[in-house]
Task: structure prediction
Amino acid sequence: MILQNALVDALNDTEWAFPLAECVHIGGFAIGVGSIALVDFRMLNLGLRHESTARILRYTELWTIFALVFVLFSGAMLFLSQTGVYLVNQVFPIKMYILLAALVYNFTIHRKVATMENPPPMLSKAAATVSLLLWVLVVFGGIFTGFLE
Amino acid sequence: MTIAHTIESIGFLSDFSESVLAYPIVLSTHLTCIALFGGMILMTNLRLLGLTFGSVTNTQMVTSLRPWKRVGGTIMISTGLLLAASEAGKYAPNPFFWTKMIILGLIGVHGFIFRPLVYNRTEELDRAAVIPTRVKVAAILSLVLWTAMFVMGRLIAYWE
Result:
């Protein structure tokens, strides 16, 4: 509670703290989701075809994890600064469920298919499509949280 | 009535900015593009700097993502135009908006200068033993400009 109050005060009293947290949040998801999307584009055969999906995943994975840590941390700060607003918001819980699904999916099924040696092309494409869809929905959920109450 | 107000009062634009669903959908699309294509720009520049994607050549990296960056850029600019035009009265006096537009212009200048020097000469880069200074300058400038572009975009919402 004390930590929460300290955070809330910092975010609400400092003019630039909230926009800064938002910038970190959006910049982080751009890098996190963007790096996952590169793996998906490879799985869909839409780019970087000269290299295996497993390799693309290896090159991007650290960026993804690092960026997602920043997104989750800044997101938690934004949430704590206006708990009341988010708790009564109808879109926010939906966004959280989709986010949870996207995170679990990314590090289980998606990762498994991406690192398979010779996955059936249809499986690869399906796994990539689900991944893109989940992450796009998270972004839409974030914007709609701000627009609908 | 100023030009900005004339623009935003154009029939479909005022309908658009007042719509409960259309405005956030277009804004979400704008942001999704930042993620999808911003990621590509970031990774391309990191590859040029030799920081990741070691086994993918610069040529493969630049040429295979180029068409997607063009698609992304087109969606980004058209959704951005729609968002700005529908609230032209708010955007016209906003210094962050104009800073963002100047940065957009600078990104154009960056492309004009570095495309012939770097991005269209990747085969030469793939054979080079060390990364030439002009490549490092191009990649770092690109990262700085795109970061500034994105920060300005966010700050537009905070100016009153």
